[in-house]
Amino acid sequence: MKITLIVHSLRKGGAEAIALQNARYFLNKYYQVHIICWVEDVGHDLSELENVTITYLVKKDKYSFLKGLLFLPMKLSKHVKVFNPNAIIFHSFTTLLISFMIPRQIKKIFVSHGYGDLELPTSFKAFLKQAFSKWV
Fold first, then answer.
1. Taking a C-beta distance cutoff of 8 angstroms, is the pair 60, 40 a contact?
2. CA dist 120 to 16, 63, 78, 106, 126, Å?
3. For an engineered disulfide with 77, which of 70, 82, 101, 129 has Cβ 3.0 to 4.6 Å away?
4. Helix, strand, coil: what percent of the chain each, to 5?
């Protein structure tokens, strides 16, 4: 069984910690685990995860939210097609926005995390999150 976990980054934070906890759980169940990070920003100890493939779509110093929405979906889609997982767990609101690019036959799980302290409520990202929350 193959599983892909998608998270914004691996910096210190709750969503990142839960994604890594998921990775350890699936490794213990003998799954092949692939973590795809929107941004290369690591704040956690990854020493227990040497059997996990970790892919970073963009370097931290090159990241821009709006450019990311435009250019990273194709990179994400390519990595998902190569790994060909049985299921994907999304731990990132940003990647949820572009999940339509993932083939329909792959099962998708969306995990909602609190983002209250990461962005000012006046940011474009906060606006998109609020708008999306009203439609779902």
1. yes
2. 20, 18, 32, 34, 7
3. 101
4. 45, 20, 35
